[in-house]
Amino acid sequence: MGNHTAVSIFTLWGFSSFSDLQSLLFVVILFSHMTILTANVSIMGAIKLSHNLHTPMYFFLCGLSFSETCTTVVVIPHMLVGLTISLPECATQMFFFLGFASNNCFIMAAMSYVRYMAVHNPLQYHTLMTRKICLQMMMASWMVGFLLSLCIIVTVFNLSFCDLNTIWHYSHQWSPLLVITLPIMKGLFLYSACVLVGSFILIMISYVFIVFIVTKMPSAKGRFKAFSTCSSHLTVVSIHYGFACFVYLRPKNSNSFHEDMLTAVTYTILTPLLNPIVYSLRNKEMQIALRETLGNVIGVFPQKAKKEP
């Protein structure tokens, strides 16, 4: 590094470099952020208040909504404004972002296993997937996700960021920080591959067994019902992993900061925005629970009149 001075303060430019689109991007991202918070909080509230949704699958959906809400809270406020931020604050943001992002992947893998158990042992499903087991799986997802994130933070922030005090990105992810350190970039690429590909393989294994079991069902109606219960989860998995792989597993170069910033928005905003919409529109139980919850909160939906004997 020669006589360079180690940097301890970063300037985070966010979308300030897009001067022509700055106002539009601010409004769109702010509106998206409020929508994400409202949708995920509504889903968590509906699951908590509706006894019909006190099942293993909705338990994990509630955990996924909470984790995605935390992910957006960590990243989006920094996306809206340019900030001067210290190195410890930068490390903290990166730690929580990577931890929650990894946790989302592992929760989706757990949800696929829950789907498999529901199809494989429908009569013993609630006996096998007890609240204690679900809680242990959820805690394991959080622990593994944040442990991997901690390993990355320790590796990255032991470096000296000489003369790299301006970051042309909206969050302190590794791409803008480490574009000049190829060995570390390779290590972080392997981390992304392990989290994304590893959890995706677990999901695919569960669904291979689900397809094998469903195809053995004698009733066409039963097969359709079994597949339809998995449609919401499969849609969310496709959205999540499609965007994430495009953002994090594609090759990076030092001249693609603006491109990386715009493509990363798809993962940071669209994924948590589309997930609650998918689970709400494709799930009648969730629609009923949301309607009842909103009705109890704001008094819009009147109580159904009792039928006369």
From TrEMBL:
GO terms for molecular function: G protein-coupled receptor activity; olfactory receptor activity. Keywords: Cell membrane, G-protein coupled receptor, Glycoprotein, Membrane, Olfaction, Receptor, Sensory transduction, Transducer, Transmembrane, Transmembrane helix. Gene3D superfamilies: Rhodopsin 7-helix transmembrane proteins (1.20.1070.10). Residues 39-279 form the G-protein coupled receptors family 1 profile domain. InterPro entries: GPCR_Rhodpsn_7TM, Olfact_rcpt, Olfactory_GPCR. It is found in: Cell membrane. The keyword Hydrolase does not apply. Its main location: membrane. Pfam families: 7tm_4 (PF13853). One of its GO terms (cellular component) is plasma membrane. This is G-protein coupled receptors family 1 profile domain-containing protein.
